[in-house]
Amino acid sequence: MSMTKFKQRNRLLSGSALCGRVDRSRELTFRFNGKYYKGYEGDTLASALLANGVDIVGRSFKYSRPRGILAADVSEPNAILQVGSDEANQVPNVRATEQPLYDGLISSSVNGWPSANVDAMSLLGKLGGDAMGPGFYYKTFMYPASMWETYEKVIRKAAGLGRAPTLPDPDKYDHMHHHVDVCVVGGGPAGLMAALTAARAGARVILADEQSEFGGAMLYGTEIIDGQPALEWVSDIANELRDYPDVLMMNNAIVNGLHDHNFLTINERRCHHLGNAIPPEQTRERMHHVRAHSVVMATGAQERPLVFANNDVPGCMLASAVSHYIHRYGVVPGDTLVLMTTNDTGYQCAFDWHDAGRLVVAIVDTRQSAHPHWLEEAKKRGIKVITGSAVIEVVGSKRVRAAVISAINAEGSFVTGETSEIECDTVASSGGWSPVVHLSCHTGAKPVWRDDINGFVPGESYEHRWYAGSVAGNHSLAECLSDGVQAGQQAVETALLDAQVTPLAASPNVPNAEQSPLGKSMAIYLVPHTSAPSRAPKQFVDMQNDVTAAGLQMATREGFESIEHVKRYTAMGFGTDQGKTGNINGMAIVAETLQQTIPETGTTMFRPNYTPVTFGAISGSHVGHLFDPKRFTPMHAWHLEHGAEFENVGQWKRPWYFPRGSETMEEALHRECLAMRKHVGILDASTLGKIDIQGKDAREFLGRVYTNAWQKLAPGKCRYGLMCGEDGMIMDDGVTSCLADNHFLMTTTTGGAASVLEWLEIYHQTEWPEMEVYFNSVTDHWATMAIAGPKARALLSELTDINLEHDEFGFMEWREGKVAGVPARVFRISFTGDLSFEINVPAHFGMHVWEALFNKGKKHNLTPYGTETMHVLRAEKGFVIVGQDTDGSVTPADINHDWAVANNKPYSFIGKRGMNREDCLRPNRKQLVGLRTVDPTVVLQEGAQAVRDPRQEIPMTMVGHVTSSYFSPVLGRSIAMGVIRGGIDRMGEKVYFPMANGDVIEAEICSTVWFDPDGQRQKA
Amino acid sequence: MFLIYCPHCEEHREEPEFHASGEAHLARPEDPEACTDEQWGEFLYFRKNPRGLHRELWVHSAGCRKFFNILRDTQTYQIHGSYKVGEWLEVDVQKDDEVSSS
After folding, report:
1. Which residues does B26 contact at the CB level (< 8 Å), separation at least 6?
2. To the nearest whole percent, how much of chain B has pLDDT over 70?
3. Confidence (pLDDT) at A137
């Protein structure tokens, strides 16, 4: 890396009182927009940029205006950067204020072409800026509609907020699950006291804070607690908390969601300070899933910037952010400061600036007066205070050059005097403090406006939640500390109500805080200008989305009166920012324009996530092969070894076909089909759902859930069963065998196994609890292999002690015995229409039996086949596949299966009433039939729509569609099934399939059974 | 994500262990054949969709596989209680609210 010496011009000297909490012995080099800079361990990317005097960090989203850093924390709207040194670790949308600096960090602006400093798009912003009001894109790019896709590409390119990496993420992420008594959100004074109170009471506690250190606002303050500097006090409390075994303290951990029943998601960034140097065993981020009995929210407050003309010019900052950079990082982000404030807390910024040795040009207070304490402190430092006035505009484009000051009226609604311009390079502003209510809104509670604090506080919730400190509108340090103790006590009392927990220490007293007195603050959301907002230079409300006061006023003039509509029309509060700095000012401006109060206007809802969460953290370790479980049959290794191609059926991996050498799929299917029909084939059918049903009422139960009769099925016999829903539509099918009088084995489709079991359970548990019957899934207990074909008997007889002769072992029967020396159940059932035995052995014997069959099978040309050949073979016999030939709107009568419906059963079985509804008895329903193409080489497309008159004008009358279609090697022609209106009574009639390419395929309606219609082969 | 009390396991467990099965207390008509098409249609398709208290059937699918009912507020998602199939739960909702939000 080339080392350019670059002076950190804004860094205070080490050894001074304000040298910050950075480690100056560890100098770090980083790159921003192609240039190298230096910073220190402990810096954020933002503090390091400011230390180096970098003013412009990006271009604005819509108007392409140069933007600088506004804030020092999570509320930063402008410094949204792309970070990452190589393609795989690119991270978009990183707030520079939240990114710890590390050696070798590479980052760049996300907006601005060719660069953030020289931007071609700003020409459009400057010339066309006034025309780009709210709804600009909606209004301008609406016509012609066909051009939208072209417009969209250009707009997206111009509007990008970073880009995703194109290579897989090399880092690891994971999840952790916690159950705690009390979860405290926020590690400022209130949160620390709440956590301490709960911990001493013996509770299991999590304390999460978004910053790298605990202390909250005290990290940049001058407070004294119990006679100590606040940060020493913080350190003592944190040390005590760390000693409790059931307390988990987390830094760099953002509670990004507070969900129902006090479920919290906490995004812990574990390695963001390490860059690419993450140890291999370390996870980059961790998502904590926390179920808390009680939640204490001590999320604090965010400072509101003031809205004035050109308030987005680099050099305009939040007052508290300036203090933050000075105290925490030893960085003064400019030389000459003008501070504008509506409240006493803002003064501290000017004092810090002055104490750091730089010039405060003036404090401009919008109020008529401040609390005497602050005026006295200003006087001591020789700082000029201009009351009853405001900075109504700044001059400058790439950096503030001067502030335009004017007297304003007592309400702050208009300018009263002459304007004057004073030179400065920084304008800090404080418009008061907005409680961070975001999390409290995530489950629907509406925040409540309080005029006395000019802010929203969290609304009521039935959950066990307490609010402590600034978030509840109690901004003074003394209130934060006492709130913390109180909330901690309440939370812990509720959480430990019934638990026998011994306190570990006495509940803490409220510490004594020394803090300067605060006078009344002023509510001012839009600083007046000599011109109306529509004519004044832009007054930005939401900087990330380039929403101005004039834009909000225009939106209301155009009829958008609901705050939710204004939000969507102007984009205020959108994006990664979610209205952190802009929302309150924006709502107040809308309220003023509509001549309403702020509570009448209301607030938009804050939804999870509080800040953007990476997909890595969301998915954790559930990626790649761990994304979804895969299910393998006991013979899977054999299939792999023999080159099977696989098909996913639910989570199962099923062999699809077994290509030999360079065979195509078509060639393989052809060979597999013929081998089975001529010799013997074998299918791994282990995935079929198997449910063991026992109990004295098992037989009656089957009669209620299946459409056909079960009373007379004797042990040793099997029967095909059809299952319907209460609506009379086919839901599943399969063969059920009688193992003993009170014991049955039901098979289901592979995909239906879980839902059928739940179906049986729900009827047993809710409708017929008096029946004595038990269900158990045994799908995985058995390995199932179906051998089918003329040689099946000869093959199996070499391996079993079961008498396979037809007189002894008939079709639709099962026998117990040994196969290849292991216990087996053999079912003589067939899904191919040929002589077939389905061998079931305990799963761990599966491979042994499969291989034994192949050892003996060579001379019979035993051929493995997959699901695709199975589909062709069953279609040749007209056997339906539920879910392919049926779709939930098909009754047994619709597929010509009346034979499987026993209407004479005494109990009104599930589906009986439904299938006898008027509409289900209609003659012209779509019915399953065979479709014989006139040209035998043409294979219909599954899903193709049928018409009776191919010459009809479009839209044509569609009378049905193809459900299954294949080429049958044994028949030497195409075969198909489909549903056609009234099809069963239209045998021999023609239907037509107009295709997208203009061809029309002609087919004749025929029987669904193509092969061996008498069923001689399966009974052989 | 809900925290649900299974009245069979007698424990609070996380929502992924459960499946919702729709409205509770939908009895299958005693004599389906005696129902008109309209009555059967009511049973098949018509469901309550209240803003507020709702009795729902849930199953502890990844647990004991037992069905049970919960009384839930569809607006706040507060669960006022769980009870077994065949039972009935009466909850003084106002009192329940006071206890919870204290």
Report:
1. B43, B57
2. 92
3. 60
> Cβ contact (<8 Å) for A260 and B1?
yes
Cβ-based contacts of A905 with chain B (< 8 Å) = none
Residue type, A203: A
The domain boundary, picked from A575, A601, A627, lies at A601
| Per-residue DSSP letter, A751 | T
Task: For residue A327, give both structure tokens.
Answer: 């105290």
Interface of B with A in 50-89 (CB under 8 A): 57, 59, 61, 65-67, 75-79, 85-86
Count CB atoms within 10 A of the CB of residue A881. 17
Question: Both A33 and A137 in a single domain?
Answer: yes
Give the chain B residue whose CA is nearest to the CA of A911.
B32
How high is the ipTM of this complex? Answer: 0.95
CB contact under 8 A, B67 and A761: yes
B99 CB neighbour count, 10 Å cutoff: 11
Q: What is the pLDDT of residue A127?
A: 44
In this prediction, residue B100 has a pLDDT band, given cuts at 50, 70 and 90, of very low
Rounded CA gap, A785 and A688, in Å? Answer: 10
Cross-strand bridge partners of residue A253: A268
Distance CA A740, CA A749 (A): 23
**How many angstroms separate the CA of residue B80 from the nearest CA in chain A?**
11
**Mutation target vs A (from B38, B65, B70, B91; most A CBs, 10 A cutoff):** B65
Residue range of the domain that includes A1017: 923-1020
Sign of CA dihedral A788, A791, A797, A799: negative
CB half-sphere exposure, A507, CA atoms < 13 A = 16
- DSSP symbols for A199-246: HHTT--EEEE-SSSSS-GGGGG---EETTEEHHHHHHHHHHHHHHSTT
> Do B67 and A762 make contact, defined as CB atoms within 8 angstroms?
yes
Domain boundary among A133, A159, A185: A159
Cβ contacts of B28 on chain A, cutoff 8 Å: 726, 767
Q: Cβ separation of A761 and B59 shorter than 8 Å? A: yes
Quick one: pLDDT at residue A6?
Answer: 61
Q: Read off the amino acid at residue A100.
A: P
Q: Measured between beta carbons, which residues in chain B are less than 8 angstroms from residue A761?
A: 59, 65, 67
Token pair of A997 as six digits: 């390419």
A114 prior amide bond cis, ω within 30: yes
Q: Are residues A33 and A147 in the same domain?
A: yes
Tell me, what's the pLDDT at A154?
A: 57
* Number of cross-chain residue pairs from A and B with Cβ atoms under 8 Å apart: 70
pLDDT computed for residue A132 by the predictor? 64
Show Cβ contacts of residue A339 under 8 Å, excluding neighbours closer than 6 positions: A319, A346, A347, A349, A350, A353, A360, A362, A363, A364, A427, A428, A429, A430
* Structural domains in chain B (count): 1
Q: Which of residues 762-781 of A touch B (CB under 8 A)?
A: 762, 765-767, 769
* pLDDT tens per residue, range A531-578: 999 999 999 999 998 999 999 999 999 999 898 899 888 888 887 778
Q: Indicate whether A72 belongs to any domain.
A: yes
Q: Total structural domains in chain A?
A: 4
A912 touches chain B (CB under 8 A): yes
Tell me, what's the pLDDT at A1? 40
Helix (H, G, I), strand (E, B) or coil at A965: strand
**Ranges of chain A with pLDDT below 50:** 1-4, 113-114, 123-128
- The residue type found at B78 is Q
On the 0-12 / 13-18 / 19+ scale of CB atoms within 10 A, A618 is middle
Q: Is the dihedral of CA A219, A223, A229, A235 positive or negative?
A: negative
d(CA A765, CA A337): 75
DSSP secondary structure string for all residues of A442-468: TTTPPPEEETTTTEEE----SSSEEE-
Residue A71: which CATH number?
3.10.20.440
